[in-house]
């Protein structure tokens, strides 16, 4: 049984996440350029995250009349902090920064902070479009959360443990994506939805002028969008230990496999974003409750039967 | 000092641009958008996300007031440029880069109206304006007669409204519950929004309960320059696609429009690309799902999209057999009532209303003024 | 020492945040202060070593409070607290109830002899909890679960303005409902 990384890992984690985020932002810019028929070269794209960050750092912070600055600030910071904390149980290789017993519940609890965070940012600005964006995220949360939880539960049942390292260890032979494909798809979709990414970006959509983020400028916007990106990276990285065998794989060391697989998942989500129009919440909610929830429950049942058949528990 | 200047220059090398134009500036506006896209500068979503405000044409008094409010909400470093002629676009945008990177100029700008009070202890006109702009990025200062406008401009006289803001009203929602209702103007500074259009809406949650559309600075019956049919239809298609969250095809549509407007001679090629784009929209299974099935009320947007494609195609082919349908403002109002915000945005983009030429239906502007 | 300090901080946060719920005017602040109070309690549960339960409290309370914020703001006038208002009703009665409860509980804590721990905690508390819930307490949990579920379904059925017979006809044979805003499955 693997244990937690030494303390240095905790210091390393934000840096690693930011590096992957940097690459993801650049890849997104390239994909956007390609989709729009105005190609952006990789050299330009790789400079882009830095450029935007400096732009926002230099930018003036703006406040709105009678806004709730305190709640807005808490919301933005919470998004960033929650993404980092959620990543604490991610095995970088085979060992996470914190190898918690109920690691899956930890991840879920941290990721749910986004509900409060986005709503608070939308509420705090005292602006109509911003508030609509915040409420959209709550509606979206109600849609994605249950399939997401069932997907997590299915992986936990497969490994008979809530500990993320146990889930990875259980996939030494067979990756969970093979025996629980429905749960994997549900997880991937909810990963995009919780980071209001890709087809689920209605909370920050163009029709509401940036939605929850509409009134953010300067550092506030930097914190919010960094938090969103980190959440996307953390949640897609979580797909790796849960369904894609974690650090297991031939030839390469475990950390390299984790990195490669994480980038692959991120790549899928970035392609998805540029291929599919935004799915509005009322559509997604019904689809999620009528199709995804029963499908993920059935998936959990099937996996449970398989585990019982193998003589587990 | 050098470091700060260098940092500032690096920060503003790729500014986010907000293009604001009144009614009848669509052609020049398209030119500006084309140049902005050519420079790979992003288009800002809201004033808070803006570095450069490009004012297209000569705004009238109402739009002018709106632009002042938007400008108050743009965080420093910022720059503003007015473009009234195609030849001014390139030097104008170049100049903004200089202004943005000039520390002294930014200080001067920030000194004038950059100090922004947190919470309105004492209501002031500035804050009142600011709030309006924040609440929907748009106009107000110049509204007369609407309930909203008067409320907001008579604050401070004995009312205890914090920051001079009006509180929400109560009204029955569609299930008969008495819930908060807001009166906000939508437009004219919103992404993918028709130039110079303002819709004063009563919002409950994100459901529109009452809508009243009007154009800023347009006299009833006044003739206004409009884009050729093909470009107009493509603009509308691009807006619908962008609002549907399909930014890639939206940008391609916009590129096609620019070539229809400004690229001489290669219209045959444009028609081919238009067909390809149309096929792609047809092939998408998610788009109809998002926009609504044909039978339901929202299928209207899908039908309108198809109609715009046909209209653009007919105009490109030179055949005059397809007469584009135009939506007048009262019809738009009727369709907006009961729609959710997202649906309403799509309806407005698909309808793409324009002030009618003097001879056609004089009721269209009257009903909304 | 650190444990005691942490316990004190969490306990004080829980109580103070809970009290502040009634001091602020803004519904949003009240809701999230209540959440803060709950999160502090979750921290206390985590300190007892019940990691699973503590995390579940965090998870459920965040979702619950966000949903509650939606309703608080929907039904309260002046939800942002921009106008001064009071959330108190029947202050005297509630003061009496609160004081009595506090005295009873505090008295109990001080006067009754605390039990001595017998046995030791299971090596894996999460597993022990699961075995208890799915073993000895199975009947309780099943009853609870079904009751809660029935309550939810019953509430929704009673509250809904338009049921499936309104939407799809008495024979449920309409090909499409006549809803104004349609969901994503096409019924």
TrEMBL record, chain A:
From the Swiss-Prot or TrEMBL record, state where the protein is found. Answer: Cell membrane; Membrane
Topology with regard to the membrane?
A: Multi-pass membrane protein
Concerning InterPro entries, the annotation shows: NADH_UbQ_OxRdtase_su1/FPO (IPR001694)
**Keywords from the named record:** Membrane, NAD, Signal, Transmembrane, Transmembrane helix
TM segments? 70-92, 112-135, 142-162, 174-197, 229-248, 254-272, 284-308
User: What domain of life?
Assistant: Bacteria
Known Pfam families for this protein?
NADHdh (PF00146)
Per the UniProt entry, the signal peptide is: 1-26
Q: Does the keyword Transmembrane apply?
A: yes
Q: What family, per the record? A: Belongs to the complex I subunit 1 family.
What is the designated name of this protein? NADH-quinone oxidoreductase subunit H
Q: Which organism is it from?
A: Actinomycetospora lemnae
Automatic annotation (TrEMBL), chain B:
Query: Per the record, which residues fall in region Disordered?
Result: 108-164
- Lineage: superkingdom: Bacteria
Basic and acidic residues bias: start-end ranges:
131-150
Its protein name is Uncharacterized protein
UniProtKB/TrEMBL annotation, chain C:
Ion transport keyword on record: no
Q: What Pfam families is this protein classified in?
A: Oxidored_q3
Topology with respect to the bilayer: Multi-pass membrane protein
Query: Which UniProt keywords are listed?
Result: Cell membrane, Membrane, NAD, Quinone, Transmembrane, Transmembrane helix
Q: Where is the composition biased (Basic and acidic residues)?
A: 177-187
Membrane-crossing ranges are 6-24, 31-50, 56-75, 95-116, 136-159
Q: Which domain of life is it from?
A: Bacteria
Q: Which reaction does it catalyse?
A: a quinone + NADH + 5 H(+)(in) = a quinol + NAD(+) + 4 H(+)(out)
Task: Give its localization.
Answer: Cell membrane
User: What EC number(s) has UniProt assigned to this enzyme?
Assistant: 7.1.1.-
Outline the segment boundaries, as ranges, of region: Disordered: 168-187
What task does this protein carry out?
Answer: NDH-1 shuttles electrons from NADH, via FMN and iron-sulfur (Fe-S) centers, to quinones in the respiratory chain. Couples the redox reaction to proton translocation (for every two electrons transferred, four hydrogen ions are translocated across the cytoplasmic membrane), and thus conserves the redox energy in a proton gradient.
State the similarity comment.
Belongs to the complex I subunit 6 family.
Q: What is this protein called?
A: NADH-quinone oxidoreductase subunit J
The source organism is Actinomycetospora lemnae
């Amino acid at each position: 049984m693997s244990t937690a990384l030494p303390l240095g890992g905790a210091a390393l984690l934000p840096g690693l996440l930011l590096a992957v985020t940097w690459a993801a932002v650049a890849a997104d810019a390239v994909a956007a350029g390609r989709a729009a028929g105005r190609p952006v070269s990789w050299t330009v794209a790789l400079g882009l995250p830095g450029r935007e960050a400096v732009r926002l750092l230099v930018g003036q912070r703006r406040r709105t009349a009678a806004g709730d600055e305190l709640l807005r600030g808490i919301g933005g910071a919470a998004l960033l902090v929650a993404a980092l904390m959620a990543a604490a149980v991610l095995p970088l290789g085979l060992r996470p920064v914190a190898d918690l017993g109920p690691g899956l519940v930890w991840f879920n609890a941290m990721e749910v902070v986004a509900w409060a965070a986005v709503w608070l940012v939308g509420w705090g600005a005292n602006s109509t479009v911003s508030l609509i964006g915040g409420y959209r995220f709550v509606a979206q949360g109600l849609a994605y959360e249950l399939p997401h939880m069932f997907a997590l539960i299915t992986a936990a049942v497969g490994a008979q443990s809530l500990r993320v390292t146990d889930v990875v260890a259980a996939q030494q032979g067979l990756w969970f994506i093979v025996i629980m494909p429905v749960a994997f798809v549900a997880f991937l979709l909810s990963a995009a939805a919780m980071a209001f990414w890709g087809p689920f970006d209605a909370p920050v959509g163009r029709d509401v002028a940036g939605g929850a983020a509409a009134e953010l400028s300067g550092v506030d916007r930097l914190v919010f969008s960094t938090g969103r990106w980190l959440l996307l990276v953390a949640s897609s990285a979580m797909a790796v230990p849960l369904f894609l065998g974690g650090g297991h794989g031939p030839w390469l060391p475990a950390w390299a496999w984790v990195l490669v697989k994480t980038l692959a998942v991120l790549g899928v989500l970035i392609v998805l974003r540029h291929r599919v129009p935004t799915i509005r919440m009322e559509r997604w909610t019904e689809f999620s409750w009528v199709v995804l929830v029963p499908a993920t429950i059935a998936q959990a049942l099937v996996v449970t039967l398989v585990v019982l058949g193998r003589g587990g528990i | 000092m050098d470091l700060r200047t260098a940092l500032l220059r690096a920060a503003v090398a790729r500014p986010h641009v907000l293009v604001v134009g009144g009614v009848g500036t669509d052609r020049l506006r398209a030119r500006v958008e084309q140049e902005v896209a050519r420079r790979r500068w992003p288009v800002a979503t809201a004033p808070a996300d803006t570095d450069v405000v490009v004012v297209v044409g000569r705004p009238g008094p109402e739009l002018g007031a709106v632009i002042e409010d938007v400008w108050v909400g743009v965080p420093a470093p910022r720059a503003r440029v007015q473009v009234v002629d195609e030849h001014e676009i390139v030097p104008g945008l170049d100049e903004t880069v200089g202004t943005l990177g000039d520390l002294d100029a930014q200080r001067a700008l920030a000194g004038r109206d950059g100090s922004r009070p947190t919470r309105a202890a004492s209501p002031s006109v500035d804050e009142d304006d600011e709030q309006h702009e924040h609440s929907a990025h748009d106009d107000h200062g110049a509204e007369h007669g609407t309930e909203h406008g008067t409320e907001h401009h008579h604050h401070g006289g004995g009312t205890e409204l914090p920051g001079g803001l009006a509180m929400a009203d109560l009204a029955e929602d569609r299930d008969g519950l008495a819930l908060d209702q807001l009166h906000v103007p939508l437009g004219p500074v919103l992404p993918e929004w028709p130039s110079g259009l303002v819709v004063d809406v009563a919002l409950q949650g994100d459901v529109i309960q009452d809508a009243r559309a009007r154009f800023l600075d347009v006299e009833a019956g006044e003739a206004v320059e409009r884009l050729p049919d093909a470009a107009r239809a493509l603009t509308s298609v691009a807006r619908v696609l962008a609002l549907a969250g399909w930014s890639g095809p939206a940008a391609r549509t916009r590129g096609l429009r620019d070539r229809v407007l400004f690229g001489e001679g290669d219209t045959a090629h444009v028609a081919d690309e238009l067909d390809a784009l149309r096929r792609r929209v047809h092939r998408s299974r998610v788009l109809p799902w998002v926009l609504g099935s044909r039978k339901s009320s929202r299928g209207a947007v899908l039908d309108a999209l198809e109609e715009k494609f046909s209209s653009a195609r007919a105009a490109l082919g030179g055949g005059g057999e397809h007469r584009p349908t135009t939506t007048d403002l009262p019809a738009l109002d009727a369709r907006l009532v009961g729609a959710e915000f997202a649906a309403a945005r799509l309806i407005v983009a698909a309808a793409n209303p324009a002030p009618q030429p003097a001879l056609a239906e004089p009721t269209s502007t009257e009903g909304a003024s | 020492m650190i444990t005691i300090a942490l316990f004190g901080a969490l306990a004080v946060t829980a109580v103070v945040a809970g009290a502040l719920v009634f001091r602020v005017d803004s519904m949003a602040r009240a809701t999230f202060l209540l959440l803060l109070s709950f999160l502090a309690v979750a921290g206390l549960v985590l300190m007892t070593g019940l990691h699973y339960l503590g995390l579940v409290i965090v998870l459920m309370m965040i979702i619950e409070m966000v949903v509650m914020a939606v309703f608080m703001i929907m039904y309260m006038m002046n939800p942002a607290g921009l106008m001064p208002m009071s959330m108190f009703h029947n202050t005297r009665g509630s003061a009496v109830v609160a004081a009595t409860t506090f005295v009873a509980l505090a008295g109990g804590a001080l006067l009754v002899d605390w039990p001595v721990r017998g046995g030791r905690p299971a090596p894996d508390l999460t597993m022990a909890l699961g075995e208890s819930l799915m073993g000895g307490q199975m009947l309780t949990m099943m009853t609870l679960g079904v009751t809660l579920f029935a309550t939810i379904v019953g509430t929704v059925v009673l509250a809904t303005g338009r049921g499936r017979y309104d939407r799809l006809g008495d024979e449920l044979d309409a090909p499409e409902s006549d809803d104004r805003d349609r969901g994503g499955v096409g019924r």
